[in-house]
Amino acid sequence: PSQLVALPYHGLSDEILAQIFEELHSSYQEGSRVHVPPPQYLLVSKRLHNIARPIWLSVISVQGTLAATNRFLAKLLTDPTIRNFVRGLGIKFFRSFTQSQFAILTVLDNLRRLTVHLDDSGSRRLNAKKSLPPMLLEPIANCPRLEELSFSQLVEVHSRIPQPVNKRPLQSFTAPVHSINKALLEYLTVRRVKKLRLTVFLNHEPFTGDLPWDHLTTIVFDIALLQDNDQGITWSVPDTLARQVRVNRVSRIFRLPLI
Length: 259
Known about the structure:
This protein has helices at about 15-25, 45-55, 65-80, 80-85, 100, 135-140, 180-190, 240-245; strands at about 60, 90-95, 115-120, 130, 150, 155, 170-175, 195-200, 220-225, 250-259. The protein is α/β, with parallel strands linked by helices and about 260 residues long. It is globular, with a radius of gyration of 21 Å.
C-alpha cells in the first residue's frame, strides 16, 4: 500500500512555501469553518514562522463569546504587527461594546474585507431585522482600504453613514436584499459599488426599493430556503427590478438554493 512520504522543505524557495501555506490557509476558510490552521506549523522553524504568520493572520474570524472577542480586540490594540497583517475580518459586534471597540476597524490600515455579525442572542424570530449600531457607521466609513463589505444578517441602518474616507469603488457588498434602505443606498452609491450579492428570503415581501445602479456590473441573488416546505417554491426577480436590471445591463446570477 502507498505511504505518505515526508519531503524536506529546506530546498524550497520562500515563494513556493508561501503558496503552500496560502492553499492550506484557504482550505480552512471553506464553508462555515472560518479558522486558521493549527498553530504547530508556526513552531517548526523561525523561517516557516516568518513565512506563515502573515498568511495565518491575513483572514481572521472572531465570532465567539464576548470575552473572547474582547481578548482579540485588546491584542489588536497592543500589537501593531498583527494589525498590519489583517486583510479580512469577520467579527461579531455585541450590544455592550464601547465606542473604542467599534473603532478598532479604523486601526486596521490594510483591511480589505469586512464581514459584520451582530449579537442576536436576544432575538426569538428567525431572520429578524437587526439595527446596525450607530457607533459602527463611522468606523465603516473610515476604513481606508475597504473593498468588500458583508452583513451576515438582515440589518437596518437608521442613521446616515458618514462620507467614506476610501474614495475607490467598493468591489462588492453582500447582505439580505431587504437591508438596503435610503441610508445604505446612499453609502453604496457614493462608494460606486460594482457587485451586489443579495440574499432573498422566500418568506419576505418582494423587494421594492432602489439599488445603486450607476457603477453596478453584477447582481448575485442567493435564494434562502428557511424551511423544508420551501423546497417547491420558485422565485423570480420582481418586474420593476427586472426592468432596471435590463436597462442598466447588469449581469444576473441565481444561486438556488442557499441553505
